[in-house]
Write a structure and sequence with these properties.
The structure holds two protein chains of two kinds. Chain A is mainly α. Chain A contains twelve helices and no strands. The chains are: A mainly alpha, B alpha/beta.
């Protein structure tokens, strides 16, 4: 357990020297910013204050399906491929320490990536004049993004533990998440319940529903549990 | 210090290690010799509790490599084959990270890193990025990492591969020095090296131990007047040379 802070620190610093992490961050903030600006120019006057945040959140959620895999692809597959897993796993650390640290490192970077988004509500208040923006979606949206990111990142960490090639990890994670997004549009109740963005929708509208929170927390726990299992099984091969 | 009993490892149908047993006493420097694919690395991975054995047991300093793997990892320093390192980190930064990870107390950490840097001849590259280092320096960073937790047992997988003759000599000298206070198991296929630094030699071939004796005795027994190489070739030669 003492190993977790040490590993998380290394993990985070490796993100900040990785070009791909900066590319992801830039693309993310640029698209989110353009999206926000577009809704400003296209909305009817007055409507913008109410619509901007829910619309932005919807798009950001969809974007994360494709950007999160680029953040998580290397976390374990790169260690396996370069062989550093061998020095890592022969130090006094447990499988759980390693998986949890990988997750927390990527999640930490994700949180840093979200911070500049605080600019959007600030700008919204500045430009909306008399029309008072709705604070609900801002708060629930922030919570929703954190939960969505948490679930997507843990899924990515699990996939990264399974394959030694980073690109395969990214593609498999993106496909998996896209599948989870797709089933959310299903007519079958239980299939729809598995949909990852289906559970994000209410957050974007300003609602925090316990069922959605339970979904994201469960998905995270299952993925991380799976990742620990995969790391453990590697010893036997 | 190291006890290995009937260790077996299967990869699917392939037998990588076949009922291997040996002991290494405290303070011994033992050479673990064999062809490529003979099972050296697999054995070492099991001993460092990186891999699990299919059958058999191994104890490091009295701790079982699978059941008490956490204890084993605390007393073993390991230099894996090909020296995997985090290429984006700087040498001193990496060693500090590894010292923290291996639980070196905060008050000792700086001193320990400085010692290992000094001992492994890394002083002039301390602030360089690992990815930019030459093979020789990488190898020494790996060795410094193996030493950083002040382990009782050192497992070194081909510690002198890729070094130039001067570095090879320095590294051998270092290993010999380390062997005075620690137990060392090192694998190599450079046989003169074994003659120079290992008191005992274990020869492994196709997963089985074919010889285990003090190096000098081994050479006498097989009538090789000068070189261990002759013994090795005799023990591991294949009919018709069907492999590799």
């Amino acid at each position: 357990m003492n190993a977790i802070p040490v590993l998380v620190r290394r993990e985070l610093s490796s993100f900040f020297v990785s070009p791909i992490a900066y590319v992801v961050m830039t693309v993310f903030l640029m698209v989110a910013g353009l999206d926000f600006a577009y809704s400003y120019f296209s909305a009817e006057s007055g409507q913008f204050a109410y619509d901007a945040i829910p619309l932005l959140l919807g798009d950001v959620g969809r974007m994360l399906i494709f950007l999160v895999p680029l953040l998580t692809m290397r976390v374990l597959s790169d260690e396996i491929n370069s062989g550093t897993i061998e020095t890592l796993m022969t130090a006094p650390v447990s499988n759980t320490d390693v998986v949890v640290s990988k997750f927390l490192g990527a999640f930490g970077f994700f949180v840093v990536m979200l911070i500049p988004m605080f600019a959007f509500p600030v700008m919204l208040y500045a430009v909306s004049g008399d029309a008072k923006p709705d604070t609900g979606p801002m708060i629930s949206g922030a919570a929703g993004l954190l939960l969505l990111g948490m679930a997507a990142i843990s899924f990515g960490v699990c996939v990264s533990a399974c394959v030694r090639n980073q690109i395969s990890a990214a593609v498999a994670t993106a496909l998996g998440l896209a599948l989870l997004w797709w089933v959310g549009a299903s007519d079958v109740g239980w299939l729809r319940y598995l949909g990852i963005l289906y559970h994000f929708e209410s957050f974007a509208k300003g609602l925090i529903d316990t069922r959605d929170v339970v979904y994201f927390v469960t998905a995270t726990a299952l993925s991380l549990f799976g990742a620990v299992g995969v790391v453990a099984v590697r010893r036997w091969r | 210090m190291i006890e290995v009993r009937n260790l077996t490892k299967l990869y699917g149908e392939t037998v990588a290690v076949d009922r291997v047993s040996f002991d290494v006493a405290r303070g011994e420097v033992v050479g673990f010799v064999g062809c490529n694919g003979a099972g050296k690395t697999t054995t070492m991975r099991i001993l460092t509790s990186f891999a699990a054995a299919t059958d058999g047991d191994a104890y490091m300093g009295g701790y079982h490599v699978f059941r008490d793997s956490d204890q084993v990892r605390r007393i073993v320093g390991y230099l894996p084959e090909n020296t995997p390192l985090y290429n984006e980190m700087r040498v001193r930064e990496y060693l500090m990270f590894r010292a923290r990870l291996k639980g070196v107390p905060a008050c000792l950490r700086k001193r320990r890193v400085a010692e290992c840097v000094e001992r492994c001849g890394l002083a002039e590259v301390g602030t360089r990025i690992i990815g930019h280092l030459s093979k020789g320096y990488r190898q020494r960073v790996g060795l410094a990492d193996a030493l950083i937790g002040d382990p009782k047992i050192l497992i070194l997988d081909e510690p002198t591969v890729g070094l130039d003759p001067n570095q090879v000599r320095e590294t051998r000298e270092l290993i010999r020095e380390l062997g005075e206070t620690r137990t060392v198991l090192l694998s190599t296929h450079i046989l003169p090296e074994v003659e120079l630094i290992c008191g005992r030699t274990i020869i492994i071939d196709r997963g089985r131990i074919v010889a285990d004796a003090p190096t000098a005795e081994l050479m006498r027994k097989y009538g090789a007047d000068e070189r261990l190489e002759d013994v090795f070739v005799r023990l591991t030669a294949r009919e018709g040379g069907e492999e590799e």
